[in-house]
Amino acid sequence: MRSSTQTGEPQTMIAQNRYLALRALHQQVGDAEPGRYDGVARFFHWTFAVSIIYASVAGYSLARIANGPVHDFLSQLNMSIGTVLIVLFPLRVVWKLVRVEPRALPNVSIRQQTLAHAVHAVIYVTIFAVLASGFLMVPNGYSFFGLIEIDTPFQKGPLTDELFTVHRASCALLAGLVMLHVAAVIKHQLIMRNDVLRRML
After folding, report:
1. Of 34, 36, 65, 151, which is least packed with CB atoms within 10 Å of its CB?
2. Is residue 54 domain-resident?
3. C-alpha distances in Å from residue 6, one per residue of 15, 19, 35, 64
4. Inside any domain, residue 4
C-alpha cells in the first residue's frame, strides 16, 4: 500500500510545474525593463480601471434615471461589462500571484510600500464583493450585450434586496479606494517626481 506522502508527491509536482509554467509565460510576455509592470498586468489594470470608472458613473446615474429605454440600456450594459470583469478577475488574481514585481519606487519607505500593498489587497477584495453582489442581486437573469441570456440564481425578494445593499456599499467603498489610489499616483508623479505613471504605461 502506497503511503499518503507518495501519493501526494505527484500532485505537488503538478502544482509546481503549473506555477513554473506561468512564471515562464510571464518571462515571455513581460517587459525587459525592471521598473515597469509587464504588458499583461497593464492590460488588466487599465481594463478594470476604465470599466470601474464607467460602471460607477453609470451606476449612480441609473438611480436618477426613470425606468425606460435609456435606463434599461444602461442597466444591461453595466451588467454585461460586469460579466466580462467576472471572467477576467480570477485571471488577474492568478497573474498577480505569479508575475514578477517591478523594481520599487525610489525614495519610498518600506512602511509606505507595505501600506500600498495593503490598500491594493483591499481593492481586490472590494472588486470581488462588487462583482459577486452585482451578479447575485439581479433577479430572473439578464441579457449579455443583447447576445445571450445569462441566468442568475435568485428571484426578486428580500435576499436580492440585501445583496443590492451590499453592492451599493461595496461600490461606494471601491469608489473611495480608487480616489485614494489616484491621489497617491498624483502625489508620487507631481510632488515626489518618481515617474510612477510610467510603470503602468
Report:
1. 151
2. yes
3. 15, 21, 42, 62
4. no
pLDDT at 45: 96
Kindly report the CATH number assigned to the domain that includes residue 45: 1.20.950
Distance CA 37, CA 178 (A): 19
Phi, psi (deg, nearest 5) at residue 105: -65, 145
pLDDT tens-place string over residues 112-159: 889 989 999 999 999 999 999 999 999 989 999 989 999 999 999 999
Which cell numbers hold the place of 70? 435609456
Q: Identify each DSSP E strand in the chain by its residue range.
A: 142-144, 148-150
How many Cα atoms are found within 13 Å in the side-chain-facing hemisphere of 146? 4
Looking at residue 167, its pLDDT comes to: 95
Residue 73 lies in a domain: yes
Instruction: Residue 191: give the domain boundaries.
Output: 31-200
Rounded to the nearest 5°, which phi and psi values hold at 142?
-155, 170
For the residues of 64-109, what is the DSSP string, one character each? TS-SSHHHHHHHHHHHHHHHHHHHHHHHHHHHHHHSPPPPPPTT--
Is the residue at 14 inside a domain?
Answer: no
Q: Kindly report the CA angle at 15 between 12 and 16, in degrees rounded to 5?
A: 85
DSSP state of 4: H
Residues 6 or more apart from 106 whose CB is under 8 A from it? 194
- Count of CA atoms in the C-beta half-sphere (13 A) of 135: 18
Could you tell me the pTM of the whole model? 0.81
